[in-house]
Design brief:
eight-stranded antiparallel β-sheet, two-stranded antiparallel ribbon, mainly beta
Length: 233
């Protein structure tokens, strides 16, 4: 039996790099093998998070002075995410997944959109290979950034003026990823263990330099993760 995984809520440059759609396996589909599954996600959220009760009034984002000075009120500005995913189990061994998404932030008048195409082939019961090609457009240089310091991302969320974020600018990102999902024979106590190495190439498709702290137009990434299932009794 071939395991299939649901695709990301947000594809492309906005998710962590992995050739698999998500790190946690979810069974989908049914026989016969040729079947398509469509997932449509429509949503909207506030620009930032956090809650605090003040004078019996629920304030969603109480510490927003730096953001308001920038002309945005995160207690009223909305962010919209629309995502459509189609999964087609072409054969018993081959699964194709297409993910299309669009995002908009009203507070900063920023938009982004992209598409990712996955192809997963089960070589045998313990080895799968996945390839992914993707394109994502950050129209305003708002949704994609690098953070040189370990705490810069958290600092930016808290409105710390000393935190550093390097925007990739208005960039069209392209990426190609190839990875394996290896399920070696293991003791029953850790049955379901998965090792997932991968190689990924990212590049700007419109001659910007969003990588290497704003100095490079492309980058290579080698990564791997290990999934160990367990049960708490």
């Amino acid at each position: 039996m071939v395991d299939e995984v649901m695709p990301p809520i947000i594809g492309t440059a906005m998710r962590c790099m992995t050739s698999e759609p998500v790190p946690v396996l979810h069974m989908i589909g049914m026989r016969p093998a040729t079947i398509a599954t469509t997932v449509i996600i429509l949503g909207r959220t506030r620009s930032t998070a956090g809650t605090l009760y003040r004078q019996r009034r629920l304030v969603e984002n109480p510490n927003v002075t730096p953001v308001i000075l920038a002309g945005v009120d995160p207690n009223s500005a909305l962010r919209y995410l629309n995502d459509v995913t189609v999964v087609w189990k072409a054969t018993d061994k081959l699964t194709l997944t297409t993910d299309v998404n669009y995002i908009r932030d009203d507070g900063f008048n920023a938009t982004g959109y992209g598409v990712a195409q996955y192809a997963t082939y089960a070589i045998n019961d313990w080895l799968k290979i996945t390839g992914r090609g993707e394109i994502w457009r950050d129209n305003n240089g708002f949704f994609v950034a690098s953070f040189p310091g370990n705490l810069d991302f958290v600092g930016i969320e808290h409105g710390n003026p000393l935190a550093v974020a390097i925007s990739g600018g208005a960039t069209t990102y392209g990426a190609l990823t190839v990875g394996l999902a290896i399920k070696p024979p293991v003791p029953k106590q850790i049955e379901g263990l998965v090792i997932r190495p991968e190689i990924r190439y990212d590049a700007s498709l419109n001659n910007t330099t969003p990588f290497g702290g704003g100095t490079k137009s492309s980058q290579w990434t080698f990564a791997s993760d290990l999934i160990i299932p367990f049960t708490i009794k």
